[in-house]
Structure formats: C-alpha cells, structure tokens
C-alpha cells in the first residue's frame, strides 16, 4: 500500500508533507531490520568508529583512545 500523504502547516504559511506508512509496510521494515542487522554487525570491525548501538558517546571516545 502506498503511504498516506498529509500536509502539516508551518509558521510561515507553507505546508510540510508527511508520509504515514501503512501497517504492512512497518511489518516488512521490521522484518528486514531483523534479518540484515546481524549480517552487517558481524561484518563491522571492532575498531570501527561511529554509531555503536547501546554505547554512550563517552564509551566510544574511551574505546577509540584505547585502540590507538
């Protein structure tokens, strides 16, 4: 199903488009995430810097200093 399109009024008088996904699309997206996340997390190296699910930014900083 296509996304529903709604427009939200902005302060300057213009409108911002908003796409509302169908429940079927949300289910498919969740399934794809569940399948692909373990594949891509297994391929990322331990010294990779960037987003680390569940780690605070200070932990990433400490970890990156320890890797040097």
Number of domains: 1
How do the SSEs run, as a string of H and E? EEHH
Shape: elongated
Largest sheet: 2 strands, antiparallel
Order of strands, widest sheet: 1-2
| Sheet/helix structural class | alpha+beta
Portion in beta strands: 15-25%
The gyration radius over C-alpha positions equals 19 Å
Q: Which bin fits the share of residues in helices?
A: 40-55%
* Number of DSSP strand runs: 2
Low-confidence stretches: none
Q: In DSSP terms, counting alpha (H) and pi (I) runs of 4 or more, how many helices?
A: 2
Estimate the mean pLDDT confidence: 77
Distance between the termini: 49 Å
Structural features, described:
The protein starts with a strand and ends with a helix. It is elongated, with a radius of gyration of 19 Å. The chain has 68 residues and is an alpha+beta fold. It is 47% helix and 18% strand. 0% of the residues are buried. The chain has one domain (4-67). The protein has two helices and two strands; from the N terminus they run ββαα. Strands 1-2 form a two-stranded antiparallel ribbon. β1 (4-9) and β2 form a beta hairpin.
Short key terms for the protein model shown above:
alpha+beta; 68 residues; two-stranded antiparallel ribbon; 18% strand; single chain; elongated
Concise description?
With 68 residues, the chain is an alpha+beta fold.
